[in-house]
Write a structure and sequence with these properties.
Layout lengths: L4 E5 L1 E5 L8 E5 L2 H9 L3 E5 L5 H8 L4 E4 L23 H17 L3 E4 L1 H9 L4 E2 L2 H4 L16 E6 L4 H6 L3 E5 L5 E2 L6 E6 L5 E6 L5 E4 L11 H22 L1
Parallel strand pairs: 1-4, 1-5, 5-6, 6-13
Antiparallel strand pairs: 2-3, 7-10, 8-9, 8-11, 11-12, 12-13
Helix pairs in contact: 2-3, 3-4
Bound molecules: manganese (II) ion.
Manganese (II) ion binds next to loops.
């Protein structure tokens, strides 16, 4: 049987000129996402950040599942706020692309795995808001962000019992990597929290009506080889995408 096709969202990156090459704007995504989807039995495809709704809709026709990947901050205007000082690197075309793709996936009941920026996109797509900068807005928060002095930030995680996430991971407590300075704040419609850090920061969301949608604030793609918990999220996405394709063919 053909492998389930997973659309992976992407950003843009500016590469300065060197002695050999002119400067370029390129479509960019860490290769770990693609490797993880392949190793879990899926076939990954780019969703380019065109910002063109018709192009996004056409691309979505070819996917069986959607992976909302990590990246820079969404423009705060997307959730009705002005920019906090620490907001960084807005990419309007990426915001447009991911908001359209997320709404299409939810309308169609297509499986979604949202990672880091992805959990924020999912929340905003459903009308939620974001904490724009954890260190300045939550004074007692743990270190959630990697930096040159803290290259491998990890923290504890509490998973809600009876959640889809608890079933997929098979745990109620764990440790996750952490590489973010934003998080979900007011929840979007139909979402519920299914994991938090010890400081209360929202670390995972799912829907309250049992759709195949999981959103995590950590980076399972970076620990795929070392952590069965990380692998389970991608195994789940690919398996759900296969089921979804089967249901469309009926
Ligand atoms: Mn964290």
């Amino acid at each position: 049987m053909a492998k389930p096709i997973i659309g992976i969202t992407t950003g843009q990156r500016f590469i300065p000129a060197t002695a050999l090459y002119r400067e370029e704007n390129v479509i960019s995504s860490p290769i770990e996402y693609f490797r993880a989807v392949i190793r879990s039995g899926g076939s990954p495809l780019f969703l380019p950040p065109t910002g063109d709704p018709a192009a996004v809709e056409a691309a979505m026709e070819g996917f069986d599942g959607l992976l909302l990947s990590g990246g820079g901050d969404m423009a705060p205007a997307r959730y009705g706020e002005g920019p906090h000082n620490a907001a960084k690197r807005p990419q309007p075309a990426r915001d447009d692309t991911e908001l359209v793709a997320t709404r299409i996936a939810l309308e169609r009941g297509m499986p979604v795995l949202a990672i880091c920026r992805g959990i924020q996109v999912l929340n905003v797509a459903l009308g939620g808001t974001l904490i724009q900068d954890i260190p300045s807005q939550i004074p007692d928060a743990l270190v959630h962000r990697t930096s040159p002095t803290e290259p491998h930030a990890y923290h504890e995680l509490s998973v809600s019992p009876d959640s889809l996430l608890a079933r997929v991971l098979g745990i109620s407590e764990g440790t996750v990597n952490s590489s973010h300075h934003q998080s979900a704040n007011r929840l979007g419609e139909g979402l519920r929290v299914c994991a938090r850090g010890p400081d209360g920061v929202i670390e995972a969301l799912e829907t309250d009506d049992g759709r195949p949608v999981l959103a995590v604030q950590w980076h399972p793609e970076r620990t795929y080889d070392d952590s069965p918990l990380s692998r389970r999220l991608f195994d789940w996405l690919v398996a759900e995408a296969g089921k979804w394709r089967g249901s469309q063919a009926e």
